[in-house]
């Protein structure tokens, strides 16, 4: 399902290493010109089990993208509405292109459990292997800075303030 920007649906396109990683329709919840919030069911195939959380059919993601920040925060809820936590992708700032919301994934991720007790940095090995630091040192620094800042907010119990 695709629609023009400004209507109730938009296609979210996650790009990694110059290729489309995933593309899915999402309901536009809000757009204040800086932060875009969309809602979509789990768009992955089957179940993704991280060991500390499972993303599975029926889960609902409320996703917050910023045009001026180097991350996207995804609130994850089970099909019954129970909050699982927040999955944060470190990305370049979001771009709107035609009927798409395009986000470039920079490999680093952060998981924050619903109770804030579990905070996990993810994919640092993929980030190091990506070569971004050599190709675009400024972007690599922004990515690392964003991950550090988000982790600090989570450890201080202030993570959800990003979404207010």
UniProtKB/TrEMBL annotation:
DUF402 domain residues: 45-151
Record's keyword terms, sorted: Hydrolase
Protein name: DUF402 domain-containing protein
InterPro entries the UniProt entry points to: DUF402 (IPR007295), FomD-like_sf (IPR035930), Ntdp-like (IPR050212)
An annotated Gene Ontology molecular function: hydrolase activity
Pfam families: DUF402
Entries under PANTHER family matching the protein: PTHR39159, UPF0374 PROTEIN YGAC
């Amino acid at each position: 399902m695709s629609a023009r920007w400004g209507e109730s649906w938009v296609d979210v396109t996650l790009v990694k290493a110059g290729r489309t990683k995933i593309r899915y329709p999402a309901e536009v919840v809000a757009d204040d010109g800086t932060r875009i919030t969309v809602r979509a069911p789990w768009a992955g195939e089957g179940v993704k089990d991280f060991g500390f959380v499972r993303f599975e059919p029926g889960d609902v993601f409320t996703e917050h993208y910023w045009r001026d920040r180097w991350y996207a925060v995804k609130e994850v809820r089970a099909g019954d509405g129970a909050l699982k936590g927040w999955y944060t992708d470190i990305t370049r700032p979001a771009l709107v292109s035609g009927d798409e919301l395009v986000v470039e994934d920079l490999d680093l991720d952060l998981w924050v459990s619903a109770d804030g007790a579990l905070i996990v940095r993810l994919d640092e090995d993929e980030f190091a292997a990506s070569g971004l630091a050599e190709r675009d040192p400024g972007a690599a620094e922004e990515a690392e800075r964003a991950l550090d800042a988000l982790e600090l907010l989570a450890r201080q119990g202030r993570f959800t303030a990003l979404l207010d």
